[in-house]
Design brief:
Largest sheet: 7 strands, mixed
CATH topology of one domain: TIM Barrel
Helix content: 25-40%
CATH superfamily of one domain: Metal-dependent hydrolases
Shape: globular
Distance between the termini: 11 Å
Number of strands: 17
CATH architecture of one domain: Alpha-Beta Barrel
Number of helices: 13
């Protein structure tokens, strides 16, 4: 049994507790939380804050070998060109070494769960062995409608392989611009059988221009490579995705649907999603969005609509570091009015719920095993992290 305390603890499901403690048993299960009262010789006390383990809601861990190789501020068109050129720039042993290293770093720095995107099986063995819990989204691509069923079949084969490793995995669609309308609908239909979906949504204005008017850098990129583009609808890209979902399901569409990035979302898109989707989760990847687009999602609009916001790091192709603390610092710098407790709710509980682990992770509640994370070097006057803040796992 350990009784761990700090200047403040953030239970997440209740208000922060000054001089708070969390008591855990030998298996890391929360037994009790409270406030210190008098001398506590049996207590481990740390300077900083304690919070439950983070959930990195969106990552591409198998792209970890691409660290430091990509140019910044290229927009989505330029980023796609770099992915096509550099994805296979390392051999398989090097790719595995890189992702294993990042798994260890993420866990030691306090990430307890991850919603991870996979295009192959290279991460499966590491996921099966790691104490970091994962839900794997097997991302599908294919712009030619006649290839849709073949792509679905390959996704199911990868899903079967994941099942052999005992990890939670299912098919998911990538985005509106990398899939034919038929494949987008079929991939979503198959993926939702698991109850969960992840979808790159409104990541850039280029994506919006492509769907709304068939113009812009992304449209020109696809035309230049003689690839089909999605139909021009005159409406935001998220509405196009929702129409694809409606092609096989009545509304409200059931399942936990994670919409990732949301840089170009707007009120029309949010209204459509809230009407059509039973459970939507809106994942932001701030450092990745800045890396590629020099833009951030409209967080105040998202908060105004009481959206369930989650935080992810994306990959080391579009980020310099996979660190939930660095993402929080980025949010402090760009949205200083958003309180730390709210951001930690996004980083801990909302992400855990989005990928189905909220009964175990996400908050300090008796019976849960969320992990205990120390974040140090706090600006106590403004209740924010500082540039010197670091996180490390205590449990």
């Amino acid at each position: 049994m350990r009784k761990i305390a700090a200047n403040y603890i953030f239970p997440i499901n209740s208000a922060p507790i000054k001089n708070g403690y969390v008591k855990v048993d030998d298996n890391g299960t929360v037994v009790e939380i409270g406030q210190l009262d008098g001398e506590c010789a049996d207590t481990e006390f740390y300077n900083g804050i304690l919070c439950p383990g983070f959930t990195n809601a969106h990552c591409h861990i198998e792209l970890s070998h691409l660290k430091g190789l990509f140019k910044e501020a290229t927009g989505m068109s330029g980023f796609i060109n770099q992915i096509n050129e550099l994805r296979s720039s390392a051999d398989e042993p090097e790719r595995r070494r890189a992702l294993e290293e990042q798994f260890e770093i993420l866990y030691n720095e306090g990430t307890s769960a991850m919603g991870d995107i996979s295009n192959c099986s290279e991460s499966f063995d590491t996921k099966a062995k790691s104490p970091l819990m994962t839900r794997t989204f097997l991302e599908l691509f294919g712009t030619l409608p006649e290839e849709a069923e073949e792509v679905i079949a390959s996704g199911k084969a990868l899903e079967a392989k994941a099942n052999e490793f005992g990890i939670k995995a299912a098919i998911t669609p990538h985005s509106c611009y990398t899939m034919s309308p038929l494949l987008l609908a079929r991939a979503a239909q198959e993926g939702l059988k698991s109850g969960f979906l992840s979808y790159h949504s409104q990541e850039s204005q280029e994506e919006e221009d492509l769907i709304i008017s068939g113009t812009g850098a992304l449209a020109e990129n696809y035309k230049g490579r003689n690839l089909p583009t999605p139909p021009v609808t005159g409406k935001p890209a998220l509405l196009y995705f929702i129409e694809r979902l409606k092609s096989f399901s009545q509304i409200p569409i059931k399942g936990r649907i994670m919409l990732v990035h949301n840089v170009a979302t707007n009120q029309e898109s949010i209204d459509a999603a809230l009407e059509a989707l039973e459970e939507s989760f809106w994942t932001i990847c701030p450092l990745s969005n800045i890396f590629i687009h020099r833009q951030l999602p409209p967080l105040d609009l998202m908060r105004k609509n009481n959206l369930a916001i989650c935080i992810g790091t994306d990959s080391l192709s579009s980020n310099k570091i996979l660190s939930m603390v660095e993402e929080i610092k980025c949010l402090h710098a760009n949205f200083p009015h958003i309180e730390l407790n709210e951001i930690l709710t996004w980083a801990c509980y909302n992400g855990a719920k989005a990928i189905g682990f909220e009964s175990v992770l996400g908050s300090f509640e008796p019976g849960k095993r969320p992990g205990v994370v120390l974040v140090d070097n706090i600006d106590w006057e403004n209740f924010k992290l500082t540039e010197k803040s670091r996180s490390r796992r205590l449990v």
